[in-house]
Amino acid sequence: AKGLMFARVGWHNPQQQFPRGEVTxxxxxxxxxTLQRVWWRYPDTPVGQEGIVTPLLxxxxxxxxxxxxxxxxxxEWDSNKELPKAVSVVLKLKDYGEIARTYLTPDGKLAxxxxxxxxxxxxxx
Length: 125
Prior knowledge:
Elements: E1 2-9, E2 23-31, E3 34-40, E4 52-58, E5 60-68, E6 73-74, E7 86-93, E8 97-104, H1 112-119
Antiparallel strand pairs: 1-2, 2-3, 3-4, 5-6, 5-7, 7-8
């Protein structure tokens, strides 16, 4: 299955009432033509332990991502030191065609030329 996995903050734990932190691990993948969200309660869950799977979209033909490092787009991102400046996600669905979105990370900025490239051929918002 092709996808993405990362740790995220924001799982509210008021006054530390529960025996957990506020960081979880989440992933998105395409499996059997379905975009799935996979969630783990703890970010240090052992490799191979399946999380809670939630189907999000069906009839997914492809799921592609690119990562902007501030100079160029890359097909892979494997850096423990910093986030990419932007992430481009392209889903191709059997019933809706191609849906493309570009997301800036907190410190991310796209040069004007890169903004134009990111939105080329994308007339769906």
